[in-house]
Amino acid sequence: MRQTILLLCCFLFLSNILQAQISGAVKGYVTDTINRSNLTNASVSLLRAQDSILLKFTRAKENGYFELNNIKSGKFILLVSYPKYADFVDQFSVDSTKLIKDYGKINLADKGRLLSEIIIKGNRAAMKIKGDTLEFDPKAFKIEPNAKVEDLIKQFPGIQIDKDGKITAQGETVTKVLVDGEEFFGDDPTLVTKNLRADMVDKVQLYDKKSDQAAFTGIDDGQKTKTLNVKLKEDKKNGHFGKVELGGGTDNFYKGQAMFNKFWDKKKLAAYGILGNTGQVGLGWGDKDKYGQNSYQVSDDGGINFSNNGNDEFESWDGQFNGEGIPVAQTGGIHFDNKWNNDKESINVNYKIGDIKLSGNRNDINQQNLSSSSIYNTSDKSFEKNMTKNKIDLAYEIKIDTTLTLKLNVDGLFKNSNSSDTEMRKGTDEQGNQLNNLKQTNTNDVDDQTFNINTLLTKRLKKTGRTLSLNLNQSSTNSKSDGYLNSRAEFFTPSVISPDSTKVVDQNKVNNITNTAFKSNLIYTEPLSKSLTLILNYGFNISNGKSDRKSFNQSTDGNYNVLDSVFSNNYQLDQTINQIGAIFNYKKNKTVFSFGSKFSGVNFKQYNVYTDEYFTRKFVNYMPQINYQYNFKQREVLGLSYNGNTDQPTLEQIQPIRNNQNQLNTILGNPDLDPSFRNNFRGSYYSYKVLSNQYFSVNAMYNFTLNPIISNVVTNDRGESISQFVNLKDKATTGYFLNTNFGKTIKAIDMNAGIGLSANKNVNYNYINTKLNQTKNSSYSFNLNLSKYKEKKYNFNASFGPTYNVANASINENSDSDGWGFNGNFWSSIELPFKLEISTDGNYQYNGKTQVIQESFERFIWNASITKKFFKTDNLKVSITGRDLLNQNIGFNRSAFNGNINQSTYTTIQRYFMFSVSWDFSKMGGGEIKQN
């Protein structure tokens, strides 16, 4: 017994010795670099080196001393942080040979006094998550001399920029770029990203920008815009900078741009001018959403807008260049903003003028699936378009006192556009027999005027959290158009060469459309407790519109003065809307949760002047919403939301405006249509680990619509269709979207690597010759991203991966258009001696053949340039550039909708060579451009 007890004691003693041998500690003192003072309460974190998981945490004592004990053997990372000081990061090990890591004094450097010769060990946090905002730190990325903001954000995880400057973040398009939270030329993001210098940037924020009233009250009004906010360094807000570039090339290609910026005190003045026919300049006006035309669409809150894009309009054009055709553009603008009176007042003014001409050709192939057969349509089209725009907007804000703020926004648009196109269309059956033939010419001239004034008054009441806000909006639009339609449609009996019937249209179309609207929204917030707030709102809207559309036939004397009453109409619309809503908002610790609903009662009356007929309708829109957000920690957040909306039928679906623009398709109205209800679920998750530069994001959306409004199409054997909209009672249309990105730095090869997965699917229905057809459209893609940068040596970035597309219609077993594809992009630059730089970029696209499309499509667009830099600051550059070196840039698009499979090819900019000279000049913060 004694021997047993003795052995047990020896075992316990040896165990304690062994345990002591593998239990280590880390200690030290945290002090200031300059004056050696102790940094009390500095945070000290111990992380596992393998995955950066936090193991232990403490704070420095009054004398700056810290100690972490009971550390098992392994590899660790020590992170020491203190506000306004640079972080200290170091990796160490604990094993049997070294149980205690004594750092002695750890001297942290004041960020404001960092000198170029000071070297800080460790990584800098590239990204932070603050609520619903992602914040990127430019200091964690490589910035070359004279690099632009575009070059900086290309390196941000989860963000891509295509060759035209379009920005995509987590799978969504960024439509607005702000500077210090302010509009900078308003609506063209490329004017910021392609012209502001990257070394001026202090931080870049990515978020969904809410309306001013929603941001103030916390009630979600559904008005969100994916936004990047570029915040400038304080010492870069005084001085001037700019750029001048000129270039000429083969085949009469040319480009030129100039931009000047002057920042002083709290003022910003900027002006720019762009001209060229290369398609490389920023042409995005971004007015499509704001001034877009939706053809009598009833919105979620009951609003109905007249438009200049009714069915009698010949192909509306918003002035954007999307790669189709050859553009010639001239644009310019001026911007000014200022704050004064101790920042109580501010003003932001933008004016832009521009002209764009576009010409090109287009070829379309279409398979129209019927229940027992298919009709094959081919179309050849040539077009010329021209648009001139003048746009001005002004924003003024005054803080009347500490609780009362007034914001005023005014904008106006004056636009003239003219277009002409010629089209030849042919339809055949499965045996190749001709069914129809269409020859059509359109010309049109449109003058548009739009004016908006918006006022927002916000008041914070005595009780914390109690607020009152009033939003008033007055708008007016006027559109006048004058055009000619000349169309000849021939119809054939199978196996007969000559047409057996012909329809001819030769008309002058004159439209005059006006609309005035007043909208108001009053919101009151009442705190029910420290964490719960009630938000109430009431809105009143009134709108008056007139739409006078006339079609004139040609008289015997050759003039177009014979009114065609069948294809002419004069509508007047008066409507009133009352909206109420209640939202509960809960916010405590890491949780934000809100729920509630809005209701709107709509009452409108439509009057047809020509027929002396009235059409009235009353309905209620129901809009529930739920939002949930949980912040696990500073760089990890989860968000979930649900929104429900009643979708009322459009007036064109109920009582369509008769048109003969497309003689192969006649639309009938259905006054018995019921509203549908759309359910939308969204979810997102973001996380980021600083030390390994590891990020992970997931964005997902799922929607389904009950009682959807679908088309009912009856097509005869010669390709003539009659369509009408109906409700689908027993099925729901559905759709989902999923995008996920993962990436990190691979230390072994010093390269950033990431993968992206994306999937989306839509299931829609329509009736084809009385049979219900289900159309499925899906796409799945995988992307691998690689990037590496060696200072003053090279820069490389590549993204590539396969895609799989699904497009089929249940009505016809021969309608499947499933197929594989592949997409790849790369850009790279190499620095050579004598300040020479070679850069190149490329885009590869492959679309495989399908059951419907029997030919595959492949193109590789390769660009390259060689640049010589001059002067110490490298701000003068001479370049020789080759665009589309392999001459493969052919416009291409495939799509499927309502049982129809479509493929389009079109002319676009192809190979050219250009010689250009660019000069960047700057004097910011009291000095010239400095080499990084």
Please tell me about this protein's structure:
- This protein has 932 residues and is mainly beta.
- The protein has 5 helices and 49 strands.
- The strands form 5 sheets. The protein has a 26-stranded antiparallel barrel.
- A hairpin with a 2-residue loop joins strand 29 (569-588) and strand 30.
- The protein is globular and about 100 Å long.
- It starts with a helix and ends with a strand.
- Residues 4-8, 10-21, 115-122, 283-315 and 926-932 have low confidence and may be disordered.
Give a short overview.
With 932 residues, this protein is mostly beta strands. The protein is 4% helix and 63% strand.
- pLDDT averaged over residues: 83
Number of strands: 49
Q: Categorize the overall geometry.
A: globular
Structural class comes to mainly beta
Q: Which range does the strand content fall in?
A: over 45%
Using the CA coordinates, give the radius of gyration: 32 Å
